[in-house]
């Protein structure tokens, strides 16, 4: 609950979408309700983590998911074990 707003606002985490890297938060008050998405990661973070852990030929390509009709990214990399 956010006390410094008048009227007070309740902040509720309503969903987490790990596949697309965001969570949704509902801000609710007597007069207004708003839903916001907050992104937790970006494609460059995953690319960095793969390279940092020894993966070779890391590529990040735009990818359109035909089921969700959303733009996302496809990450490909070669395992350091092979």
How do the strands and helices of this protein lay out in sequence?
Blueprint: E1 10-17, E2 22-28, E3 33-39, H1 43-52, E4 56-65, E5 70-78
Antiparallel strand pairs: 1-2, 2-3, 4-5
Q: Into which percentage range does the β-strand content fall?
A: over 45%
Order of helices and strands: EEEHEE
Low-confidence stretches: none
Number of distinct beta strands: 5
Strand order of the largest sheet: 1-2-3
The major β-sheet equals: 3 strands, antiparallel
Put simply, the count of helices is: 1
Q: Mean pLDDT across all residues, rounded?
A: 76
Shape: elongated
First-last Cα distance: 51 Å
- If you compute it from the alpha carbons, what radius of gyration comes out, rounded to the nearest whole angstrom? 19 Å
The secondary-structure class comes to mainly beta
- State the helicity in percent bands: 10-25%
